[in-house]
Amino acid sequence: MTIVQVDHVTFGYGVDLLFEDVCFTLAAGERLALVAPNGQGKSSLMRIIAGELQPDEGRVLMPRSMRVGYLHQSHEPDPSGTVMEVLMKPFSAAREARHALTEAEHGAATGLPADLDRLAHAQEHYQRIGADGVEREVSTIATRVGFSDADLERSVASLSGGERGRLQLAAVLAAKPDLLLLDEPTNHLDIESTEWLEAFLRGFPGAVVVVSHDRAFLDATCPRTAELGLFRFRLYEAPYSTYLTLREEDLARERRELELQRAEIAKTEDFIRRNLAGQGTNQAKSRRKMLDKLVRIERPEDIWADAKKLGMRFAPGRRSGEIVIEAKGLGAARGGRRLFQGIDLQVRRLERLAIVGPNGSGKSTLLKRLAGLGEPGDEGEVRLGTNLDMGYFDQHLESLDPRRSCVEQIRAVRPDMVVDAARQYLSRFRFFGDDAFRAVGSLSGGERTRLALARLLLVPRNLLLLDEPTNHLDIPASEILEEALANFDGTVVVVSHDRRFLDRVATRVFHLDDGVVTLYPGTYSEFVARNRRPKVEPVVAAAAPAAAPVGKESHEERRKRSREEERKKKRVTDLERMIAESEATLTTLRAELTEGYGNDWAKLAKRAEEERVLAAKVDTWTEEWMKLSEEFA
Description:
Blueprint: E1 2-13, E2 16-27, E3 31-35, H1 42-50, E4 57-61, E5 68-71, H2 83-88, H3 92-107, H4 113-128, H5 131-144, H6 161-174, E6 179-183, H7 191-202, E7 207-211, H8 215-221, E8 224-228, E9 233-236, H9 240-275, H10 281-293, E10 323-334, E11 337-348, E12 352-356, H11 363-370, E13 379-384, E14 390-393, H12 406-413, H13 419-427, H14 445-456, E15 463-467, H15 475-486, E16 491-495, H16 499-505, E17 508-513, E18 516-521, H17 524-532, H18 555-595, H19 601-632
Parallel strand pairs: 3-7, 3-8, 5-6, 6-7, 12-16, 12-17, 14-15, 15-16
Antiparallel strand pairs: 1-2, 1-4, 8-9, 10-11, 10-13, 17-18
Helix pairs in contact: 3-4, 3-5, 5-6, 5-19, 7-18, 9-10, 12-13, 18-19
C-alpha cells in the first residue's frame, strides 16, 4: 500500500534551483536512502515531504490520517520539561493516567478509605489503558539510544547538545509514526546504539526515508537508494554500496550514448554541407529536418564530481622517534563521575589506533589527555616521544573563532601566507570566491569541519589526534579523508563512530567501556568479530598447563588444583553450549524483528528487549569463555 507519493516536485531559492521533477512513491515497510553532496537539497526535500516547505512545482500526496515523524537537525526539544515528559508528549492518555496515579499515591498517605479507593481506581485505570506498557516501550527506546534510567528524570535544559540530539531521535521513534524522515540520525549515537537503530528500522512497519553520511548504516537499513541531482533524480533498487557500482555503469553508458549521438550529428551535418547545393539537395533538407527534430542527449550529471575534488593531502613531516606516546596511570572524572583510571598505553610510530566505546565512556577525554589538554585533578602522566609535530582535531571545533573569516583562520596558523594564497588554498576545500571571506559563525557544520581540516593540513605533522573527524562531512569528503590518512606517513590516534572510516584507517583498537580497557590488534571489523562472534572450539583437547615441580606442592594442593582445572574445563564446555544455543535464538529473534509485526508495537518492543537482554548475556558469556580459553591455550 502506497502511503506517500512525491509527484514532480521542483524547489529552489530564488534563481538558485536545488532540484527539479522529483518523483517517487513509498509503501509501508519500504526504506529509502536519499543521497547527494552537502548543499544539494536533501534536507529541503525532507522538509517538503514533512509539510514544512511548499514546493515551487509539484505536490506530495499522503493520507490525511498519516502520522509523520521527522528528525530535523535543527529541531530542539522543549527545555522546560524532563526527558520522560518529552518522550511521553504524544501519549496524552497515558501521561494523564500517570499524573492521576502519582497524585493518588501522595493522597493515599493519609490512610483514609476514600483516598485508598481513589488510589485503587487510579491504579486500575492506569493498567487498563496500558499506560505501563507505553512507559516501558518509551523507556526501552530511550535506553537503547544511550539514556540511563536516572537520565529520564533529568531536565532537558541540563542536557548536552549530543544528548538533546539523542532525545529528539528517541521522541520521534517512540511516537510510532507511519512515515519516518530521519536526517542524520546517527550523528550523536555510539556504535552500539547505531546497530540497535539499524535493527529497529529493519523491523519498522511504516515507511522510512534516511539522509546519512554513515555508509555502513545506509547499507544496513535501506534496500533502495535515491540520488538527488540538480536536473535528474535517479532511483535504484539497491543499497548504497551497490548503488555506487550501478550509477557508474549508468554514467558510462550515458556518456557512450552521448558520444555516439554527437558523432552521428557531426556526420549528418557534414553530409548536409556537402549536398545542400548539389544533386543531394532534397536528401540534405530531409536530414536537416531530422536534426531539427532530434532530441539531444544532455551530458550526464555526475553530482559527486565537484565533491570529489576536495584537495586533502597531509604534508610530509619529519621522522619521529619509535615511541610516540607513553601514558602511565591515566585517570579522569567529569561531572562527579569516574570515567577511567589506571590506564597504561604505548603508541608506536606509524600505528593507527582507534579509540572506541559507548557514549560517556571517556573516549574524547582520553584523547585530550594524550594531547596534553587535561584538567586539574586528572591522574597519571603522558610522555611524548622525540621529534613530534602533533596536530589535534577537536570534534566541537573550539579552535575556530566564529567572528573571524575563513581567510583569517588560515592566516592565524600561517601568518606568512598572503590573502590571495590563503584564498587559493581554501579553494582546495571547496571554499570558492567570496566564501573565503565568510565569518566562521555563518558556516554549516560540514563547512566548519572542512575549515578545521584545512588548518590541520597547513603545516607538516607526524602525529594526528582526531576526535570524530567525519562528523558533518558528506560521504565523498569522508572517503577523501580516509585516503589522505591511508597515505599519511605518521601516527594516528582517532575517536570515531563511523565504522567504514575506522575499518579503513585503524590497525589497532582500544576499547573503553565503564572504566574497563581492552586493546585489540587488527582492524575494527576484526575487533567486532573477535569481541562478539568468537570461534568456539573445544578446549578439552588443548595442552594442559605445565605441572608444578615435584615436591613443591602437597598432595592436597595438587588435588585441589586438578579439581579447579576440571571445573573450568566443564565451565568452558557449558559456555560453548550456551553461546551456540543463544546465537541460534538470536538469529530467530533478529529475523522476526526484520520481518516486523505490523502495527503490534508492544510485541515489537517485547521482542527487541528480549534480543537486547540475550545479546548482553552472550557478550558476557563470550568474555568469560575467552578468558578461560586463554588459560588453556
